[in-house]
Specification:
InterPro entries: FAD/NAD-bd_sf, Flavin_mOase-like
Pfam families: FMO-like (PF00743)
Order of helices and strands: EEEHH
GO molecular function: flavin adenine dinucleotide binding; N,N-dimethylaniline monooxygenase activity; NADP binding
Distance between the termini: 51 Å
Keywords: FAD, Flavoprotein, NADP, Oxidoreductase
Family: Belongs to the FMO family.
Largest sheet: 3 strands, antiparallel
């Protein structure tokens, strides 16, 4: 079994592996690209009436429902500590119940 190891920055990829900036070459079967994730609502700015820096963060009631746009809800705008799947599941159920009028 292989191991996951951090390496220096990648210089370039080749068909069978990767060259690193320190001049080393590593043959690889797979590359895990762990880039991180940042929530950004800028793409929704025109829909929710926000501009500039304010457009990057949605202000949602309980991190789910928009306060002035009925029918607008988001999953996983909260930053849970632990399982994201459990939070997404519960938020999706809540959204479905609210939209169904329950």
């Amino acid at each position: 079994m292989g191991a996951v190891r951090m390496k220096v920055a990648i210089e370039r990829f080749e068909e069978t592996g990767v060259w690193f900036v320190d001049g080393t070459f590593q043959e690889l079967d797979a590359v895990i690209w762990a880039t991180g994730f940042e929530r950004d609502a800028a793409g929704l700015a025109c829909s929710v009436g926000r501009e500039g820096e304010e457009s990057k963060r949605l202000r949602l009631w309980r991190s789910v429902f928009h306060p002035t746009l009925p029918g607008f809800a988001c999953c996983l705008q909260a930053h849970p500590h632990g399982s994201h799947w459990a939070v997404a599941d519960m938020q999706a159920l809540w959204i479905a119940r609210v939209f169904a009028g329950r």
